[in-house]
Amino acid sequence: MSLKEKFKGTGIAIVTPFDENREIDWPAFEQLIEYWIQGNADYLVVLGTTGESATIHGKDKQAVFSFVCDKVKGRLPLMAGIGGNDTKEVTASLREFNLTGYDAILSVSPYYNKPNQEGIFRHYQAISEASPLPVMIYNVPGRTGMNVSAETQLRIAHECKNVFATKEASGNFEQINQILKYKPESFMVVSGDDPITLPMMALGADGVISVVANAFPSRFSEMVRLCLKGNFSEAARIHFQFTDIITTLFAEGSPAGIKAYLSEMGLCKKYCRLPVWEVSDSLLRKIKSLLKEYQNAELNAAN
User: Fold this and answer.
1) Tens digits of residue pLDDT in 229-278
2) Which residues are catalytic?
3) What letter does residue 260 receive in the DSSP assignment?
């Protein structure tokens, strides 16, 4: 299977479930993995932002990588989140982690340091050379504080042969248009924002790495597959089912929102690691209401 076949469609930026002590809840993790696989996701992204990678380190990080690989058992492609704002540390991590069973790396652009575009290019150039697996750029300026411009992403795409894709979460359609228009033919563009997945795919994006699909893998994956088939009118009906839900996911920080949904669904507990905290009572009431509304609509459609 080619890289494009492996990473086309719906990837889930999976959560890392915690218990009341904020330790990894391995039984819940196994339950979630089966839920995502049965929900027809196309691949899983392990220890991205939604997986709370910022607060999982060293042996715990390796334990998560190994656990997911062991439980998936080759049933889905896997992508490992390995990024940071110290290029030397990131490249060392790429060499040190045991990534057996993984197919690619997702590497977020450097945060906090606010490097210029040349620094960002050289960061990815170093990662491209060091990585034992193909690399996907992750551009999310709302979190990193620095946009990876269309010009820089295209330069990376053309010059860094081990970088095969970008997860583009700038929300800037002028930038998205430029990347889609001038990228190499084999270079993949993936939505990093659930609410703009449909319009990005209408322009030619290859899919999404999704947060909402943690809780609704089957239905959201169905929307993405309809987009891939060019059936955007049917896809839009599903898209609008999720617009209000997606808003609540990020209203008080992620992954607190998606963990609230998963908790209400009985799939894992709501707990996050500090400084991320659980959603407020008022937002939780809204989440419960939206979840009930969604479930009732699905039940009515089935009948």
Assistant:
1) 999 999 999 999 999 999 999 999 999 999 999 999 999 999 999 999 99
2) 138, 167
3) H
- Reported pTM: 0.96
Check: CB of residue 156 under 8 Å from CB of residue 124.
yes
As beta bridge partners, residue 45 has 13, 79
Q: What is the CATH number of domain 3-230?
A: 3.20.20.70
Model confidence pLDDT, tens digit, residues 185-200: 999 999 999 999 999 9
List the chain domain ranges: 3-230
Query: Cβ contacts of residue 183 below 8 Å, gap of 6+?
Result: 154, 157, 189
Q: How big is the chain, counted in residues?
A: 303
Inter-residue contact 83 to 113 (CB < 8 Å): no
